[in-house]
Amino acid sequence: MSELTTGKFSMAISDLENVQITINNIVGAIEKEADEIDVEMGPTVKPGVSSLRDWDHNILERYNPVYTPMCDQCCYCTFGPCDLSGNKEGACGIDLAGHNAREFMLRVITGAAAHSGHGRHLLHHLIGLYGKDHPLDVGATNIIAPNVQLVTGVSPKTLGDLDSVLSYVEEQITQLLAAVHVGQEGASIDFESKALHGGMIDHVGMEISDIAQISCLDFPKSDDEAPLADIGMGCLDASKPTLIVIGHNVAAVTDIIDYMEEKGLNDKIELGGLCCTALDMTRYKTGDRTLPRAKVVGTLAKELKTIRSGIPDVIIVDEQCIRADVLKEASKLMIPVITTNDKVMYGLKDRSNDSIEDILEDLTTGKEKGALMFDYVKLGELAPRLTMMMSEIRKQKGIKALPTDEELKELADKCVHCLKCEVACPNSLPISEAMTALSEGDLSNFEVLHDQCIACGRCEFACPKDIDIVNVIEKSSQRVISEEVGKVRVGRGPISDPEIREEGVNLVLGTTPGIVALVGCSNYPDGTRDLFTIADEMLRRSYIVVVSGCSAMDLGMYKGEDGMTLYEKYPARFKSGGLLNTGSCVSNAHITGAVIKVASIFAQKNISGNYEEIADYTLNRVGAVGVAWGAYSQKAASIGTGCSRLGIPVILGPHGSKYRRALIAKPYEEDKWSVYDARNGSKMQIPAAPDYLLTTAETVEEMMPMLAKSCIRPSDNNMGRMIKLTHYIELSQKYLGIMPEDWYKFVRTETDLPLAKREKLLKILEKEHGWEIDWKRKKILSGPAMKSDVSAQPTNLKRLCKEA
Amino acid sequence: MSELTTGKFSMAISDLENVQITINNIVGAIEKEADEIDVEMGPTVKPGVSSLRDWDHNILERYNPVYTPMCDQCCYCTFGPCDLSGNKEGACGIDLAGHNAREFMLRVITGAAAHSGHGRHLLHHLIGLYGKDHPLDVGATNIIAPNVQLVTGVSPKTLGDLDSVLSYVEEQITQLLAAVHVGQEGASIDFESKALHGGMIDHVGMEISDIAQISCLDFPKSDDEAPLADIGMGCLDASKPTLIVIGHNVAAVTDIIDYMEEKGLNDKIELGGLCCTALDMTRYKTGDRTLPRAKVVGTLAKELKTIRSGIPDVIIVDEQCIRADVLKEASKLMIPVITTNDKVMYGLKDRSNDSIEDILEDLTTGKEKGALMFDYVKLGELAPRLTMMMSEIRKQKGIKALPTDEELKELADKCVHCLKCEVACPNSLPISEAMTALSEGDLSNFEVLHDQCIACGRCEFACPKDIDIVNVIEKSSQRVISEEVGKVRVGRGPISDPEIREEGVNLVLGTTPGIVALVGCSNYPDGTRDLFTIADEMLRRSYIVVVSGCSAMDLGMYKGEDGMTLYEKYPARFKSGGLLNTGSCVSNAHITGAVIKVASIFAQKNISGNYEEIADYTLNRVGAVGVAWGAYSQKAASIGTGCSRLGIPVILGPHGSKYRRALIAKPYEEDKWSVYDARNGSKMQIPAAPDYLLTTAETVEEMMPMLAKSCIRPSDNNMGRMIKLTHYIELSQKYLGIMPEDWYKFVRTETDLPLAKREKLLKILEKEHGWEIDWKRKKILSGPAMKSDVSAQPTNLKRLCKEA
Amino acid sequence: MVDVIKNTQIHCTYGCKSSKAVQPDVAGKMISKAKRPLFIVGSQILKDEELLKRSIEIAKKADLPVAATGHSMSGLVDQGINAKYINVHALATYLCDPNWTGLDGSGQYDTIVVLGHFKYYIDQVLSGLKSFSKIKSIAIEREYIQNATMSFGNITPAVHIEALDELIDNL
Amino acid sequence: MVDVIKNTQIHCTYGCKSSKAVQPDVAGKMISKAKRPLFIVGSQILKDEELLKRSIEIAKKADLPVAATGHSMSGLVDQGINAKYINVHALATYLCDPNWTGLDGSGQYDTIVVLGHFKYYIDQVLSGLKSFSKIKSIAIEREYIQNATMSFGNITPAVHIEALDELIDNL
After folding, report:
1. Model's pTM, two decimal places?
2. C4: pLDDT confidence band, cut at 50, 70 and 90?
3. What percent of chain B has pLDDT over 70?
4. Which of A82, B418, B726, C82 is the most buried if burial means most Cβ atoms within 10 Å?
């Protein structure tokens, strides 16, 4: 039976003589076989909803769930609506804390379902094209799927291997959704555990999605020199027929790219994308570092603006993060919309079985506003042809999109400054003032607003004068928009084993001050430029900056004083001072994947089915922090929550408070800040960092020192701690104008102190904190709450201790 | 390869010589094999989210989605909260209709997940005990799983066969949950289609759950003489140690029953259940018609009252429909709570690996308020022993539950009649008046309220005087409660093939006036007795009345003038005038199952993967109507929505309006009321009945004529139409005091008219509606909008027409 | 004058848009002024004879066509008013349809007046109308109906009867 | 007197319990009367010098300890007030903990005053306090903060400055 693997296998029949086989048992047998092949299998292979509950309760003991309800009532069942204000109980007995924990959990599994639903669609599509036996190949790694392996114990080798893992994911999501039902969980703490489970599952789903497409679609494979792609509304050549794709699932688009290439249309049609499909379009067939075929227009925040510009001649949507009014908005400007995925169908007729000519007829004559098309080969031909035709037709009809200069002035003059738009604006932008300025011919206010505005359109519904405010902003910002021409590194996929091998030690000892992962969406509090500011600052300080999805896009929109984007300036390698774009939203799994691989490759930990130990390792030793500055979606909540369970702290922008729940520790609860030393089971004090697992920051400036502090870990050696502390102090001084109050709490010995400031800091320690200093040797004699012991093995888990 | 089936098979190795096998393909091959074995396979085997969309759009064209939002804003993502009032768009572009369709869909899949999550748990448990090859046996039927077969094409034969079907269910639920994510579906009509998909999937999940447990746990198998069980709060013998089980999943309880039997404890411990676990406890080991081991206390509405009574010595909960405050409430009265399922853990310590003695120690001393126990064998011993011990301890401690008579009076006197309780009460019950009466020593008001009160406890949180109003109601109603001693028929499981064979023709021709299914929960607008009234009325009129779950329980609480419950009075057979309890909540699948079987057995339709055709058949020919009078849960929404897709109309009580969406047709849209005649594809007018697929009624009285009208179908023969019309007219006269306005619209010919009133009605037709009557022959000459043609084959589907 | 507009704020549970509290005299005048009003009477009027009496009086005095929902019809037959039975959920559906011609075929309504309903039920039914139609709704129940355009507040049965009398005086 | 309580109703989006609109003079007096107040100043004060000035003035005149959230600290250093940096989300967490002894170790606060925050952010942060603590919160932002105990309404920047001046006069 040695040939039995989880992948394809050939049976020599002779081996099986006299064996009775029950089909379901064959599958079972193979799973067992897989277990045996692996040297070691951890205690939680394919964990159920409660399998990692002890770990959850362990971390939740320190990191308190903090609820900030979006609404103080519940309207889930027909007993309701129930007023839960003041933490009252509703008719079913649930209180506000329980309900909010449930609400948060629901957001998390919605995000997880979006990713794994995407994965299921993609996997089905790719298996259809490439077969179940198509090998997985994501570059130079022995751990093809760290999240999959960590959670399920499975080391997938082929597309087909991902199938059963995805079934596990779907089973878990269903179990969690079941718990949302009225009359299920009664304790908020256990809804929290379920949320964490959903977050963990999400990373498995994301990983499956991305490794499947990397393996099949000739994406860069752990490539640290992936090419650069054009990005920005300004990079679209409006004179050409323009085809715009919106969404997150590249499956439908590959055929379009192939058709265009085959027919030599690459120069004749402008192919642009919004959201992650755009990113994945640039990854398609760039495994050999050739230039991407498509341009990236931008994130969700650019969708309405792109449509309103009138530039697209045809719009294709697939799934996720697509404005619900695309069809309505596009139709106004005679732009046909093609839906390609059952998650978004817009009520359009299914034309999958109709002839292309018939569909072209119906769409070009305007008989139909759009079409639903599940046949991607057909779509490949239909979309480019339709784009060419619509471009002509729309030109002939003289479709007018944005207002003229005159009309713009008229619109501004119409404004009665009632402030209703500002009240409706999710970011309370000063529209009224900008209207006044515009009336006087000054566009500059709106040019500023353009970057801050997420083009949601709520203002327009609020306006009593029916001013198309989004159009006003866009028209006023034409100059700025034309300059929106940047570069984004094409998504490289996972971090390779050699990179981890090289960098792991620096991360664990702290000599590379940390990984800052800029992920998530585009709901920024103060415009997209903030991302550039963060990355620029942290890269200069030699942090590793990893990006993905919307953040990866927006980061490429800005240039430094040298006229270069950060992508052009920093290497795309996983090393101190590297700037890596892993890829689209599902590529976030490679960030947690890298952390898992640090434990596996650097620390030689078994990762198969060994979640708790790896999470514990991460929490105590890997200085990584996630930033989802513009987090808006349930997916962002899910990704962040997966990080929480794995021990990676995540900071959200202020809008993130609307996820309703944070995990915030209390540094003043001193008994919470100790762990075991695995060498002997003794307790050891640890620094109060990270002091949250999921929280929000008000401004980028506030976040800067938070980032540095969040990377401090008990495992830092003195050099590492010194580096981290230096950044913490410097960033606090730079952005808040003060020394951080708690800086001294992170000092174990004088060698932890920043070299340049050592003497000055020792003085403060003596004077303000009463520490004893041997001034001759410049040594600390007493004072620190913690010892410095690099060979200590900090862990939250008693079971891992030698003498326990 | 002829031995390959979907079930267990043995391979003769010689047959396979020189064959290369890829494991996944074996599974694939078997599926194909299954397809080939079945004579015919319909077009939608394992339909995806969009596969039945055409059918959905077809029925939604007539049955309009009607939205009654519970809230006019959306708070799903961090763009929000978005004000959607007046059907405005939110930041993502979704409008209120779209959002509400999504909200409804989310409720549906939450319900479906609860059922299938339950099924997954149960299946895993039962496969662990009985093996994958354990045969499915649900009684005298060739169609073991009509819903499974209809949807997936699979005819399961063993427990193991259910596994892959459940994976399909989980995949679909995940796909649907994905669509809840912001930026997915933009059209309400396609959220509707997804909701219908979720409802259909729910019936598959329910069916799996129930046939698995029927097959393993010696439940009655399509037994029309299943025994009767005791029901009611009054049937508990409070003098004995009392163990109460709450929830929906019997898995944990069977071991308790076995242990008690083995140790001869049946007479020493009072074992009672609340909600569906109670029903399934009575089904356990009653396949041979022996009396059930457990008593049924009642529905969710009795949970708080049962705890507050102080009678339980120990409470076990499993999953679903369990008040979230069980632990909190029980602890106050020193009742230990044991959780047994990961869906409900209450934050309790997992004691699965601890010794029973240790757990007993911790619980009896009050060191722990409860325990989490996943080891059901251990639970089997723990629970009864703990019950005996706690009974002693609680007696010794003199645990006091309800107020004394004196205290009762004091509580009533405390009332300041501010009406806050009434405003908080979901049913606006007149508590203030009852307090006044109670102050004067009159208990009768509260005795009436006891039946209407669902014991949700919201009033207590509202009371500024901290009066425990639920206790007041309960104490005041002790006399009434002591008389709550009824009988409920033990759940029989599916309808057998012989029954369908016998009754199918009567149903399709209308000579049995209809099936009325009383299902769903206990959130009644006006007390539990209403159910008795409905069933009594319809049974007298020879409708088939099918019940399940909460409705099955509450129906057994009342006796007619003859002192008998309806269960004792009417046969439990699927025939005119029969009263059948299929079982617990998941047994609802047998009701749709019966309808599917009518199409299969009576009409000889292929059902495998042939959903659309069977739904079309049902809608046009099977006079069945569902009533979820007390629908409160997401499961009820899901069950109802599964019925909608299958063409079975469902009426909810007024609380059901809080599901936010109904499907209501407009009888005045005359062009909507025609179908094809499958014989030749011609159009035929049909009566405007059912004129909804999901709606609500205000009162039982209003619903009575609605029920009769809802059973009218185009396929009625004259006798059938006459019978149905008679009931429609009589019920309208009896309960509304008037002839129904539209009665004449259902008349195709004089023989459709009720015999006794024929002449009188003909006169009305002539006089008020201008019909021409041949008075000599008492024949209608002109007037009717429809022809009477029993051999017509009404269908909504052009593809089924011969000349189409 | 009877005060019927107290206790309105705490029931703002349906989101952004809540009904305006209205006094009985104003409600009465508004009903009288409506061009195409419909009086929607629910079955709860049967639980209180005084209420039933007032319902009939309102219909008569203001000459309102009556949609009798639930089984309220059984109390309204032969009372000399123009009442027709209709299911209230269906009625609300038709009310949102500009093509519906009303119970009498003469066209869609512009104002509805509701009385005698379960609070939660009429609130749901009206939430549809509030969002998807332009019809004005006046709730003269004894509970605050948030989704109406205008509503009485939460009042006792006795005050309610008084209020209805005042309303009738102002018709 | 400046009217700062208009436009409050339409933002009742968080459910049942909404803040009470308050006028600046009343707010000022309440702040002065608080036993253990905390002034929570957000980074939006840095966007408007007039606002920054008023923030400092309020802290000084009422002798309020200041929790400087976001990066507002950079505008509050060396201004002669008792300000400490703290993340506002963390602060709200500690405020719900009866065991927290405050920024100065002297015990939990009873009243907080918020100024200079993003509307949506402070509204969220306060929703936690509203539900899970008994602390009274007074929002003196230029937007209506629904989850505060008391709040100004939605006003223009100019009116806001005027209102703050009036508040200061009443400290």
Report:
1. 0.95
2. low
3. 95
4. A82
Q: Which position has the token pair 């379902």?
A: A113
How many C-beta atoms lie closer than 10 Å to residue D33's C-beta? 9
Q: Which residue spans within B460-524 are E strands per DSSP?
A: 486-489, 515-518
pLDDT attached to residue C21 = 84
pLDDT at C17: 77
Contacts of residue A241, Cβ cutoff 8 Å, sequence gap at least 6: A268, A269, A270, A313, A387, A388, A390, A391, A392
DSSP conformational letter for B404:
P
Instruction: Say how many C-beta atoms besides its own lie within 10 A of residue B777's C-beta.
Output: 9
Residues C11 and A72: their CA atoms lie apart, in Å, by: 12
Per DSSP, the three-state class of A228 is: strand
Alpha helices in B398-457 (DSSP H): 405-414, 420-424, 431-439, 444-452
Residue of C nearest to B432 (CA): C156
Taking the CA of residue D93 and the nearest CA in chain A, the distance in Å comes to 6
**pLDDT tens-digit map of A362-413:** 999 999 999 999 999 999 999 999 999 999 999 999 999 999 999 999 999 9
Q: What is the per-residue pLDDT for D1?
A: 53
Tell me the one-letter amino acid at A244.
Answer: I
Residues of chain B falling short of pLDDT 50:
1-36, 38
SS3 state of residue A51: coil
Segment B695-743, tens digit of pLDDT: 999 999 999 999 999 999 999 999 999 999 999 999 999 999 999 999 9
Q: How far apart are the first and last CA of chain A?
A: 39
What is the predicted pLDDT for the residue at B1? 28
- Which of chain D's residues have a Cβ under 8 Å away from the Cβ of C18? 9, 12
Question: What is the identity of the amino acid at B533?
Answer: T
Q: What is the CA radius of gyration of chain A?
A: 27
Point out the least confidently predicted range of A262-266, A457-461, C12-16, D140-144: C12-16
> How many residues comprise chain C?
171
How far is the C-alpha of D34 from the C-alpha of D37, rounded, in Å? 6
Q: What is the helix, strand, coil percentage profile of chain C, to 5?
A: 40, 15, 45
Q: Could you report the per-residue pLDDT of D89-113, keeping only the tens digit for each?
A: 999 999 999 999 999 999 999 999 9
Q: For residue A39, what pLDDT band results from cuts at 50, 70 and 90?
A: low
- Interval A95-116: pLDDT, tens: 999 999 999 999 999 999 999 9
**Which chain A residue is nearest to residue B346, measuring alpha carbons?**
A187
Integer angstrom CA distances of residue B614 from A468, B45, B600, B607, B610: 50, 13, 8, 7, 7
Residue in chain D closest to B82 (alpha carbons) equals D13
Sign of the alpha-carbon torsion through B728, B730, B733, B735 = negative
Confidence of residue A8 (pLDDT cuts 50, 70, 90): very low
CB contact under 8 A, D16 and C15: no
Residue A795 bridge partners (DSSP) = A676
If we measure between CA atoms, which residue out of C6, A177, D127, D18 comes closest to residue D5? D18
Interface confidence (ipTM) of the complex? 0.95
Measured distance CA(A208)–CA(B479) in Å, rounded: 62
The reply to whether residue B701 touches residue C156, judged by beta carbons under 8 angstroms, is no
Angle at A244 between CA A238 and CA A250, to 5 degrees: 145
Q: Which residues of A78-116 are buried (b: 16+ CB within 10 A; e: fewer)?
A: bbbbbbbbebbbbbbbbbbbbbbbbbbbbbbbbbbbbbb
Alpha-helical regions (H) of A226-275: 251-262
**Count of CB atoms within 10 A of residue A786's CB?**
19
Q: Which chains touch A (3 or more CB pairs under 8 A)?
A: B, C, D
Percent of chain B as helix, strand, coil, to the nearest 5: 50, 10, 40
